[in-house]
């Protein structure tokens, strides 16, 4: 297996200094070149798991391996694309994308050629000399994806990369990300609270239970041989994920609202964008 998450556990201290278990015995195996999403209620530990894979945080127990190597610290072979593009405002698009290659001491011309190739893939060839403030949110996120891909990572970790974008831009970026994924065959681990996004993008969806976060169910998304998934398949898969999550969302609501909890299961719907409101 390309990514192996073996018995991962993680706790954090809350305001009262009590230790709260956030991730409990997480075991996941991801094949090379696959596209896996994690969905689950807000606070179930999706980002925490992603940071552990990135090496940005350390687990209390268990082990993570990517391409056979044990994860002990952050590295360019496990890049993260966050919700905020986080570009350097004083650098142009091209300079932002070549920044990591410069640190790797790649010759300037080689780095430039590589960056231009990737920028073409994300349809930003016309904007190489622009500065981040001159770009839309979607374009900034494309630069962030290009900056990650130029490092030729073993795995691309994406933490709600499109959740700040409007629906139309998100759709365009979904299409582009799938094109990139098919072209580069990069392994993608994608965290989202948007069920439809997970269904449209990934081959496998890992549904998390919450408090503590653990795997509730793993769903394979029917493959799209011609690249286009019929609406009926999307809706059916979304509905399956939603029904698995319903119990978890109710658990969160009950805990947060105590005796005031009066929701009925049929009051929990996703909105038209596939989002689940503030509880997922
Ligand atoms: N550094 C930290 N210190 C203390 N608690 C933390 C820390 N990081 C995360 N937590 C807690 O761990 C839990 C899981 O957080 P995490 O961000 O991983 O959840 P999530 O599923 O990604 O949520 P969301 O969908 O809202 O982003 C939350 O209760 C959060 O408050």
SS strand fraction: 15-25%
Q: Could you name the CATH homologous superfamily?
A: P-loop containing nucleotide triphosphate hydrolases
Predict the CATH topology: Rossmann fold
Q: Can you tell me the CATH class? A: Alpha Beta
| Overall morphology | globular
SSE succession: EEEHEEEHHHEHEHEEH
Number of domains: 1
Kindly report the spatial arrangement of strands forming the biggest sheet.
6-7-8-3-9-10
Number of helices: 7
Biggest sheet details? 6 strands, mixed
Structural class: alpha/beta
Bound molecules: adenosine-5'-triphosphate
Mean pLDDT: 90
Describe the model.
- Its EC number is 7.6.2.9.
- Pfam families: ABC_tran.
- It comes from Peribacillus simplex.
- By secondary structure, this protein is α/β, with parallel strands linked by helices.
- It has a single domain (about 5-75, about 155-280), classed as Rossmann fold (3-Layer(aba) Sandwich), CATH 3.40.50.300.
- About 35% of the residues lie in helices and about 20% in strands.
- The chain is built from seven helices and ten strands.
- The protein has helices spanning about 45-55, 95-105, 110-120, 135-150, 165-185, 195-200, 230-255; strands at about 5-15, 20-30, 35-40, 60-65, 70, 80, 155-160, 185-190, 205-210, 215-220.
- The protein has a six-stranded mixed β-sheet, sandwiched between helices. A four-stranded antiparallel β-sheet has the order 2-1-4-5, with helices on one face.
- α2 packs parallel to α4 and α3 crosses α4.
- The mean pLDDT is about 90.
- Bound molecules: adenosine-5'-triphosphate.
- Adenosine-5'-triphosphate (ATP) binds near residues 40, 42, 43, 45 and 47.
